[in-house]
């Protein structure tokens, strides 16, 4: 079973359609059951589209890496708070 933190790591690949069939199916199954990850994927899609629409240059890879790290940290913090209850 795909965990939220695992999804955060592969979310961009999922949105870009770069996952193999089995892995993509695992993400879809997880999204059916996890409202937080559905929200996360929706926000990531919107952010990606916004960046594409307002930038003709390639985004800075270091910036993207830092954004991915912070999103993963935030998702992990959210999940750990949920498991504390």
Automatic annotation (TrEMBL):
It comes from the Bacteria. Residues 4-38 form the Putative zinc-finger domain. This is Zf-HC2 domain-containing protein. It comes from Marinobacter metalliresistant.
